[in-house]
Write a structure and sequence with these properties.
The protein has 299 residues and is α/β, with parallel strands linked by helices. Helix content is 34%, strand content 29%. The protein is built from eleven helices and 13 strands. The structure holds adenosine-5'-triphosphate.
Length: 299
């Protein structure tokens, strides 16, 4: 899979405050990529840098493998701050103004965009009659002018009620289905779990982990075990209580436990009592909940 965006050692200081510390990761094409972290972890700074709004002190990034810059920009739509729409103008007129000012898209495209964000039926309604969710969808519509292949959104559901949040989630999923790549910042674990395919987790400007949501966010403890006598180990483990599933993987035996219930000492002593000496025992992955708990707990 080609990467749409690659960051390499991006570092940013605001005076003495370090907002980003040597951050590197790649965004696969076609992914819904969540940048997850608590307030102040550097998400907005990171998005601002890759959108050329801010300059990094160190490090670099490339869009689409470093193609010609002018062309690449046209393929990126972004929503960093809520745009200033005119309250007494309709949605269609507001988008016409966005198009005229930014030069993105065409006048003819406005209805298509309004349809995509579910506002076509209300296109003539004044902006100030819209719910917060509709206003946010219009803002995403503005970012969609010019049919960008990549959409960058900063906290797209911030301040919305549950209905508005659900609508934005649906919209993001639909845009992804059409083959767009979506990069979004969020401080909500739940949101990232529900809409994202990939994630990068930031804590105080440092990348904690990155990968596919399945890899990173698995809601189980996974324990890997190995022994010279794997067949006997397997037989013994099948008599051990407490785990959810067992399988062989990459030369080891893998057990899954409900979140937070794997106890390596207990496993080790159970095996030893049953005549097995382990030569490999480790927790392979921590669940994201555990990771997120660690990262939101300061220090
Ligand atoms: P939030 O969700 O609250 O916006 P964030 O994860 O987007 O948080 P940033 O806004 O990127 O984080 O901020 C990262 C760090 O940089 C924070 O410590 C913040 O206080 C600091 N910071 C951000 N902008 C500035 C600025 N213009 N001047 C000084 N410090 C700043």
């Amino acid at each position: 899979m080609q990467s749409v965006l690659s960051l390499n050692g991006v570092t940013k200081f605001y005076g003495k405050i370090q907002a980003l510390n040597n951050v590197s990761f790649s965004v696969p094409e076609g992914s819904v990529f969540g940048i997850l972290g608590p307030n102040g972890s550097g998400k907005t700074t990171l998005l601002s840098i890759v959108l050329d709004v801010l300059k990094a002190n160190k490090g670099s990034y490339t869009w689409m493998g470093g193609e010609d810059d002018g062309e690449v920009r046209k393929k990126i739509g972004s929503l960093l701050e809520t745009p200033n729409f005119y309250h007494y103008l309709s949605a269609a007129d507001n988008l016409a103004i966005t198009h005229a000012i930014s030069g993105r898209g065409t006048k003819e495209e406005i209805d298509t965009v309004l349809d995509k964000v579910g506002l076509l039926a209300r296109k003539k309604s004044k902006f100030n009659t819209y719910s917060l969710g509709m206003k946010q969808r219009l803002a995403i519509g503005a970012a969609l002018l010019g049919s960008p292949k990549v959409l960058v959104l900063d906290e797209p559901t911030n301040g919305l009620d549950p209905e508005g949040i659900a609508e934005i989630r649906e919209l993001i999923k639909n845009l992804a289905k059409e083959g767009n790549t979506i990069i979004m910042a969020s401080h909500l674990l739940d949101e990232v779990e529900k809409v994202c395919t990939h994630v990068a987790i930031l804590k105080k400007g440092t990348l904690i982990t990155t990968g596919s949501v399945d890899e990173v966010m698995i809601n189980e403890d996974i324990v890997e075990l190995g022994s010279h006598d794997k067949a006997t180990l397997l037989t013994v483990l099948k008599t051990m209580p407490g785990y959810n599933s067992i399988k062989e993987e990459l030369g080891f035996i893998q057990l899954t436990f409900s979140l937070g219930t794997a106890n390596l000492s207990e496993i080790n002593s159970y095996c030893f009592k049953n005549g097995i000496v382990l030569n490999h025992l480790r927790v392979k992955r921590k669940s994201l909940e555990t990771k997120f708990f660690e990262l939101t707990n300061q220090n």
